[in-house]
Specification:
Length: about 450
């Protein structure tokens, strides 16, 4: 693509599109409806030259000339008239191979594929750097929310201390229905499927893997390292019950599937799990399918990005903005800022096992309602140094009854040890629920003030 000479019509940016599903169709639609704005701001139009699909006969939500469609990846990758490849096929293979093939030709690639980035990020970044090609992936996390650009550019001068995100819309929708309507998990999941948010196979969303891929990407960028997705602690929302959500509300919390990453004295915490969040925290107000990423930089202080983390047009918005950046980089003959920082070579930092992390805990036990129960449980906590913040007992006279504790911040290994002992007490019928509580603070890095901490530069 060239900038064009004065008086001549500008040369379009020519795109090879791999995939014409939800995101690919959204891109086609967006480039049509905002054609003028994109062309004016970029100085040239964007034109789709070839589209790879699996089926040539499938009905498409947007009309695409039949002659543009192909089932042969070679017809896209070997076309010398294509400037940029957009990969919106999903999955690891053949997406990884096709991205590598395009980069090896020095061609920029825009991708929305969180899984391939989370699993093969360093390999892809090294290939991009080796061939001086751009790799752009704004759409891979939180779709319409420009969180990658914020981390790479907007917060470039910060040390990020904490990052907490609601980065899976399906689970946020399910938890919102459970909290606001008292629905059981299975009922809320069915509602999410009917609304078209959850897939027929909702495993990746409800078991936390979708959020884990995205957290692996965000935490790698925030802490300039490679956080393999296998090192992220992952727990989904299947075991969250309306009972715990109701206790949470009573205690001043809501429950979110949070993706949390922290820098704890140079080591990284990276975990995805249901989390009790104080109702006053900005993330508590994020309902339904909306996503948000809360960040705390040492200079910026707290900030939160909020918006639609999925869907055809919101995701296409991120893909199109990457295309415009790629066009600009091509025109200037430069590799993008992030690739120049050599993310493929970033040193590995230790990712702490979950047992080494520190949080507060919400714990619900089913106990026999008799004298001495509280003392026995408190003694087990005392032995492992877990301090109790509050206790609720409900349902006097029935057996078993709920006994709910919120602890002060404690090391997870110590809480697990106490729970093992408590689970064996004859007066304890069941350890019914264990939910971590977060307000975004990280004692080692931020001091105890938590989310109201001011910016600090030392
Ligand atoms: P999708 O609706 O399933 O579309 C995938 C497209 O790729 C289809 O057009 C399919 O062709 C084509 N395709 C897949 N494998 C192929 C192969 N081996 N050869 C040729 N064509 C192939 O997926 P999507 O929802 O658009 O998602 C695409 C990517 O964007 C994924 O990485 C996803 O994680 C990411 N993303 C999606 C969203 C969202 O809201 N959907 C949001 C953010 C990121 P056919 O149409 O012929 O089957
Ligand atoms: N399935 C994801 C979600 C959208 O529910 O947020 C794609 O990343």
């Amino acid at each position: 693509m060239a900038g064009g000479v004065a008086g001549e019509s500008p040369v379009p940016l020519r795109v090879g599109l791999l995939g014409l599903g939800v995101v690919g169709s959204g891109l086609v639609q967006l480039l049509r409806c905002n054609r003028e704005e994109v062309a004016r701001r970029l100085g040239a139009p964007i034109e789709i030259r070839r589209v790879l699909v699996r089926s040539l006969d499938k009905p498409r939500p947007v009309p695409v000339p039949r002659e543009l469609l192909t089932t042969d990846p070679g017809r896209v990758l070997q076309d010398p008239e294509i400037d940029v490849i957009v990969e919106v096929m999903g999955g690891v293979e053949p997406a990884r191979e096709l991205i590598l093939a395009a980069l090896a030709q020095g061609r920029p690639v825009v991708t929305a594929n969180k899984e391939v980035l989370a699993r093969h990020g360093p390999e892809l970044f090294r290939a991009a750097a080796a061939h001086g090609a751009g790799l752009y992936f704004e759409a891979s996390v939180a779709a319409g929310i420009p969180v990658i650009r914020s981390l790479v550019q907007g917060l470039a001068a910060n040390k990020v201390r904490t990052l907490m995100g609601i980065i899976n819309g399906t689970t946020n929708y399910i938890l919102t229905r459970m909290i606001e309507e008292g629905a059981e998990f299975a009922v809320a999941l069915e509602q999410a499927q009917r609304a078209g948010y959850a897939e027929a196979d909702p495993t990746s969303d409800v078991d936390g893997w979708d959020a884990a891929y995205k957290l692996a990407i965000l935490s790698s960028l925030a802490f300039e390292t490679y956080v393999p997705v296998e090192s992220v602690y992952v727990e989904g929302i299947r075991r969250v019950t309306p009972v715990d959500l109701a206790y949470g509300t009573e205690l001043g919390f809501t429950v979110k599937l949070l993706a949390i990453a922290k820098n704890v004295n140079g080591a990284i915490e990276a975990r995805v799990h249901p989390t009790m969040v104080p109702l006053h925290h900005p993330l508590a107000a994020v309902r339904d399918v909306f996503n948000a990423v809360y960040l705390n930089g040492n200079a910026s202080g707290e900030l939160m990005l909020y918006g639609r983390g999925a869907g055809s047009l919101p995701t296409a918005s991120a893909v199109a903005s990457d295309l415009m950046e790629a066009a600009d980089d091509l025109r200037r003959g430069q590799t993008p800022l992030l690739i120049r920082r050599r993310p493929g070579e970033w040193a590995r930092k230790e990712v702490l096992p979950i047992t080494e992390t520190r949080t507060r805990f919400y714990l619900r036990f089913l106990v026999h309602d008799q004298p001495g129960v509280l003392a026995a449980i408190a003694a087990a906590f005392g032995k492992t140094g877990v301090s109790i913040e509050s206790v609720i007992q409900k349902g006097r006279g029935r057996s078993p009854v709920d006994l709910v504790f919120v602890t002060h911040e404690a090391k997870e290994a110590n809480v697990r040890e106490a729970l093992r002992e408590i689970g064996q007490l004859p007066v304890v019928h069941q350890v019914a629920s264990v939910i971590r509580v977060e307000d975004g603070s990280s004692q080692e890095e931020m001091g105890p003030a938590g989310s109201t901490e001011e910016a600090r530069c030392e």
